[in-house]
Amino acid sequence: MGSQLGKRRRRRRRRVRVNVGRLLLILVLLAAVIFLSVLLVKSCAADKTEEEKESSGFISSLFGKETPTPSPLATVAPTPTPVPTFSPSAVAGTMPSDFGLEEAIEDNGTVVDAYTRAEPIDFLEGDKYTELEGVITFRGNNFRDSAAYGTVTWTGQAAEPWTFSVGSMAKKSGSGSWTGCGWTGQPLIVKWPEETKRIMNLYDSAKNDPDLVEVIYATMDGHIYFLDLYTGEKTRDPINVGYPFKGAGALDPRGYPLMYVGSGDDSTAGDSRAFIINLIDGTILYEFGVEDGFALRDLSYFDSSALVDAETDTLIYPGESGILYTIKLNTQYDPNAGTISINPQTVKWRYKGARSLSTDTVDGSQGWWLGIEDSAIIWREHAIFTDNGGHMICLNLNTMKAVWVQDTLDDTNCTPVLSLEGPDNHPYVYTSTSFHPNWRASENSTAPIPIWKIDAVTGQIVAQNDTYHCQTIATPNQVSGGVQGTLAIGEKDLEGLIFVPVAMTEGTRGKLVALNTSDLSVKWECDFAGYPWSSPVAVYDDSGKGYLVQCNKTGYIHLIDGQTGEIISEMSLGSNVEASPAVYNNMVVVGTRGGLIYGMDLNYLKNYQQPAA
Description:
Blueprint: H1 2-43, H2 50-62, E1 102-107, E2 110-112, E3 133-135, E4 148-149, E5 162-165, E6 168-170, E7 177-179, E8 188-191, H3 194-197, H4 204-207, E9 214-218, E10 223-228, E11 239-240, E12 250-251, E13 258-262, E14 274-278, E15 284-288, E16 307-309, E17 314-318, E18 323-328, E19 332-334, E20 339-341, E21 345-352, E22 356-357, E23 361-362, E24 365-366, E25 368-369, E26 377-379, E27 382-386, E28 391-396, E29 401-407, E30 417-421, E31 426-432, E32 434-435, E33 446-448, E34 451-455, E35 461-465, E36 469-471, E37 481-482, E38 488-489, E39 497-503, E40 510-516, E41 522-528, E42 537-540, E43 546-551, E44 556-561, E45 567-572, E46 582-584, E47 587-591, E48 596-601, H5 602-606
Helix pairs in contact: 1-2
């Protein structure tokens, strides 16, 4: 019996030893798990949840010490890309004195000898001009380098184009009427911020559309029309200003409900002028430019498209009287109250060159004209523009003094384009000119139309193409040959190219030509039966492939391969197209002299088949 008890005790002890061993094994495994958990907790970011922190504290207590809380990593601010500097200065041949340039400044009604702007103007690159979605001034921004927003998506499917009819206005002088949409005639396209959209006098259907993109078109019949980009339906009542509009107008880059637009001719309502319009209710806040005693030329037309310096609240607007207006707006905008007001303070600059005359004839001789019809480039504190009398001028907007001048030979209407090139972002200007009879050649003959690449720092010509000679018909139609449309600079797969519309190359024919920006040599030419006053628009698909949209006098809109110049498709819009298109993603909008505004998906144009004869 004792023996059996001892055996039982021995067995019991063996069982106990076995259980203890298992327990030790479990504890070892548990310790390993806890140790690994501690390492994991320590590697986590500092912003743990409360539950994680409690777990970490429990694990720390097992080891008898506090687990230090990791220090948060410091947020490193990204290094901003430095803005290229721009400090132009004249050299021999581009000195303002070489052209006999005489300048004057008027500061809020007083002529002054010198001027320094209290709040310096400083424009950045073109793609920083606005955060609005759309095309809000002629050629999009202060570099004037794009009339397209977004990219084209080729789906192969598209609805029929929409059209909207506009009227005409009898000319104040002479016979005939202004009809439809003229030169430059680019529409504005914008997707408004919600806080702006909700206070404007939009129809309820437009105001409640979260995807509304609005087309704003000032036309020759004296109205400003407001249309839905995708349907062509009116989004609000038009504004009847009563003056014919040829230029594009401009919207405020801050998203404020303001429009800046000038008329291109006098009307029975009075002499031409510029307007600042309240787009909350369609009222005119301010008019200027008419009967201006500071002007040397009595011609208050505004075909130029304005720019606004958002930081200083300043409007910059050249006019055909030879004055460049800079207007401190003193804008008061309260979107919550739905109100906006301005209190303008104006500083003006005027000029006169050795060959500029204030009237069309002096002592029986034809005079080269004063006046600015193109839209100014602005880069940093300098504006660059050309005039009717063959001058390209670089003007310091903070001192209102010309820095350099280049000879552009003739009545120059096309807007210059600015491009920053090379590793140092050196600025170059691309431009051309037109042909005015009796200045460089006799009526109905031809004259050379150079295309220039100009160093924006010195004003010197660095490359020139003299390939094209053009005709001008002075009477009865007054059709100017040369380059009236604005050049388009290539990007993405079209980088290194500049596209130039050349009018009246063979009679009333014309071309779109692609030049290499390095030396302005010709890459390709595309011939048209009708001259192009309309500006080409470069558009790109999702892959970066580039195309050109070009309209012309015979009423055709063309889609062109940007690499080859091949016409992919074309469609008749029924009448002369002098106006320049604007593009928003897939949609292109342009008006004709025949009185129709077209809105078209580029997929429709690409797949359009000409009807059988």
